[in-house]
Design a protein that fits this description.
The protein is of the alpha/beta class. It is built from seven helices and 15 strands. The strands form four sheets. It has a five-stranded parallel beta sheet. Strands 10-9-8-12-11 form a five-stranded antiparallel beta sheet, with helices on both faces. A three-stranded antiparallel beta sheet has the order 13-14-15, with no helix packed on it. Strand 4, helix 4 and strand 5 form a beta-alpha-beta unit.
C-alpha cells in the first residue's frame, strides 16, 4: 500500500488536503489504495525519517511553517538520501526555482482548487506508479512481468502455484516456499496457512475464520494460523 505524507503546521490545511485526496481517489482512481500520515512540523517529519527510517511514497509539503521551513526540510531529506517525490504547497511563488532544484514534482500556490490539485496529483501519481518495482515470475516458455498489486492472491495446487491476477490466472511450477521468497520483497504479501499467499491490499473484509478479497473470493483461515495472520494484517495497516 502506498503512503502519502502531509506536512503543514495548520490543521485546517491538513484537513483540506486530506479531503481533496479522498475526492481525487473517488473521481480519478478508485482502485488506488493508500494511507495518509500527517505531520504538523518539519521537525516531526524529519524525526520519523531519521529515527525510524520512514519513507513515504509521496510527500505534500508546505513551505512556510513555524520552525524549519519546507525548503529546509526538503534539503535535509535529500541529504538523508530520501528521494520521496515532493509536491510543495505554498502561499508564494518566490521559492519555485529552489523547489525544482530539490527535484520537486509540482509547486502549488495557495489557495488552489480541485482542478489544479488534481492536475498535480495526476503528475505525482504517474511518477509514483512508475517507481513501483515490477514483479518478474518465470512461467512456461519465458517470464511474466507485472506490478505486485496485479496479484489478488496465490494458491498452492499440488506442485504448482496459481497466481490469480487482474488479467489472467497464471499456473507456475514452483514450491509455495520459493514463491513466497520472491513475494516477500513486497510488504503487502502474507501467507495464510500452507495453501495461500494473500495480497493484503486486496482484502475487503477479515472475519474470524475467513478473508474476503475484492475480486469476490472468500478464503478460509486455518484456526491455528488465524491469530498470526490477523496480527500481520493489522501491523501492515496500522503500524
Amino acid at each position: 500500500m502506498f503512503e502519502i505524507a502531509l506536512c503543514d503546521d495548520e490543521s485546517t490545511e491538513l484537513e483540506k488536503i486530506e479531503n481533496l485526496l479522498s475526492l481525487y481517489q473517488q473521481e480519478r482512481n478508485d482502485s488506488m489504495q493508500y494511507k495518509i500520515a500527517k505531520f504538523e512540523s518539519a521537525e516531526e517529519l524529519l524525526a520519523q525519517v531519521r529515527q525510524k527510517g520512514y519513507r513515504p511514497n509521496l510527500l505534500l509539503l508546505d513551505i512556510f511553517m513555524t520552525g524549519k521551513t519546507g525548503m529546509e526540510a526538503a534539503d535535509e531529506l535529500r541529504k538523508e538520501k530520501c528521494d520521496v517525490p515532493i509536491v510543495f504547497l505554498t502561499a508564494s511563488t518566490e521559492y519555485a526555482l529552489e523547489a525544482y532544484e530539490l527535484d520537486a514534482l509540482q509547486y502549488l500556490v495557495k489557495p488552489f482548487g480541485k482542478e489544479k490539485f488534481f492536475h498535480a496529483m495526476d503528475i505525482a501519481f504517474d511518477k509514483v506508479w512508475k517507481k513501483e518495482e515490477p514483479l518478474v515470475i518465470k512461467v512456461a516458455g519465458g517470464v511474466c512481468q507485472m506490478q505486485p498489486d496485479d496479484i489478488f492472491y496465490c494458491e498452492t495446487q499440488k506442485n504448482y502455484q496459481i497466481l490469480y491476477t487482474r488479467s489472467e490466472n497464471l499456473r507456475v511450477r514452483m514450491t509455495a516456499g520459493n514463491l513466497y521468497a520472491i513475494l516477500q520483497r513486497f510488504p503487502q504479501f502474507q501467507k495464510c496457512g500452507s495453501s495461500y499467499i494473500l495480497n493484503m491490499n486486496h482484502i475487503v473484509a477479515l472475519h474470524k475464520d475467513e478473508v474476503k478479497m475484492d475480486n469476490g473470493r472468500k478464503i478460509f483461515i486455518p484456526s491455528s494460523k488465524a491469530a498470526e495472520f490477523k496480527k500481520a494484517y493489522f501491523a501492515y495497516y496500522f503500524d
